[in-house]
Amino acid sequence: MHGPGSPGWLLVALCAATGAYCLLRMRSRVEEQRRTAGGEALMGFGMAAMAVPAAVSTPPRWTWAVYTAVFGVAALRALWAARTNAHHAHHLVGAFAMAYMAAVMASGAHSGVPVLTGVLLVYFTVYVLWAGTRLVPAAVAGPAGGSSSGGGTAMGGTPGGSSAGGGRTPGWGDRLELAQACRLSMGIGMLAMLLTL
User: Highest mean pLDDT: which of 133-147, 155-169, 182-196?
Assistant: First the structure.
């Protein structure tokens, strides 16, 4: 990870800001949202720590072993959660990618298995493109004052089923589009980190 100065600091800032927002999302009234936000906060802060430029800090090798263990446990937890919620499959891939990158750094090799790195790059490229399209607002149907045709897939609803038009306005921490923007940011960060591997 530990790339050159300016791009490295931009990646640190992006991932840390994403992790901080995910911590705020843990205050949601929706239990599944809180659980998901916790895992995403761990990913954001972990990515920020791993992306600190080498000129500033070169952690000892045992630090990478700790990262490997932490994200290995996170991957196992995501695997268990994926039994009931398919969204956790993405968390599984993300935690595995983090554990993989940390293991490579712990070994001192500074380059991973090309095929595995390539598969992860393809996965996160597809994910970033898919997540980006989900942020595009749904087209407005009918005259002014008409309803959106998307019904909450991109901009309106929350995982708990409340929407802006459903009587209760979701808090900014429950906004689905903000959560999706965080996932998009982390996907872009993961691509940047994998490219340096």
Answer: 182-196
**SS3 (DSSP) at 135:** coil
Burial class (CB in 10 A: 0-12, 13-18, 19+), 82: middle
Q: Which tens digit of pLDDT belongs to each residue from 77-89? A: 999 988 887 778 9
Cα–Cα distance measured from residue 11 to residue 50, given in angstroms and rounded to the nearest whole number: 10
- CA 128/CA 112 separation, integer angstroms: 22
Q: What's 52's DSSP letter?
A: S
State the pTM of this model: 0.77
Angle between helices 31-50 and 5-25 (to 10 degrees): 160
Angle between helices 176-195 and 88-107 (to 10 degrees): 30
